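PROTEIN ENTRY
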Amino acid sequence: MTLNWDNPLALPNTSVQSRPELDRNKSVTLITDKAVDQGEAVEQVEKNNTEPSLEYPASDTHFVQSLTFGDSANDSDSGSQRRATHPTQETTSLAQTPPATLKASLSARRREVGEQQPFTPMKPINSEDKRVINGLGDINQLAPFKYPWAWEFFINANKNHWTPLDINMAQDVSDYHHKLKPEERHVYENVLAYLTTSDILAMRNIGLAVMEKMTAPELQIYQARQVYEEALHTWTYQHCIETIGLDQSEIYNRYRVVPEINQKIQIANRRLNAVMRSDIDLRQPDDLQEFVLSYAFFSGIFEGCWFYNGFSPVFALQRRGLMKGTAEQLQYIMRDEVMHCSFGIRVVRQIMQEENVILDPRDIRDMWDEAEAAEVAYSKFLLPTPILGYSQQDHHEQFRFIANRRARSLGMEEPFPGAKNALPWLDEQSNMRKEKNFFETRVTEYQTGGALKWE
């Protein structure tokens, strides 16, 4: 048979012909499922060489698997399955047309349609037309601002730039292998195991579920920076794992096998999946409520409580002079997360004000109770034996205290009245400005945004 080398979709002719430029040392993959020896230029087609492969008689469509060649890096869509109608005169004609010509023709037709539409000047954008969601402004036009505070978040975030390579981790290697007790290694490893997956979830939430629903570009611009920072945090955890010499596969897979870590991830996944539906419509009250609750969860609980509280066991080690490099990495991450939390809470409150959203108190109560139950289970797994200066009870009580703070910022009632500040030194990790020896470390101090008030 003769193959149409310019268009693999065309049906082959019933004669044998080798591709002139085919290297005989490379393999040829055909629509047959029989193996073809390398170096052979003879093609075999199963059953009848005029019968399309993978045809399903009960359907009006069939799939044709394209021909692929080991030396054909530029063949379009090689190796994929294509969905096609039964061959007709029209489809045969299309199959005989080189794909490049088809694309050019489609592009030309689109251009013609665009050129036929007369230019109509548009009225200037009014900042009052902007809304966080469901706005009428031009998403491609930054100014005039309606939310100048969002732009300030972006400016401050860019002043706070750092990378994990800026921080000396040499002492951490010695500490982990020679100074940490078994229960302290357990804490260190599982904090990393939880955070590695969590920051990817946070990145996906902002990048895939939130940004595309915003209708004011100044909000999207800060959120784009936030996506970058979540990726930077993931790099940081990976850098710590590599530097210490931990088993990457084992650490990354713990969330799949440790129920207490998996529970927190699944709660976040459920919230994320609820607002990533293709049919979500924020003009519908139920969908709008779902979105606001999800955003409140990610900003107020996932980043505002679980992350904020999640760094504290490593900070407890740092206070005793252990794992100081890792703790410094987490300190910079924590400052980013403070800004993410603050920004997210402000966006949630703005949406509630603009869209007249009143959340169901039962949904809010369930959200806090579920988050606390997951945090209690996680803290019991993380700290079955207390480490010096830190216990499971400290972790749990501090979660409740931080949750009250986030609830007040969201304009909600405190979910855990009377909770005590079990770790008064924790806020120092995000607020303090450290002095560094210029000759021992690269200066990565934040310029602004380190100290934020929550009350």
Summary: The chain has a mean pLDDT of 80.
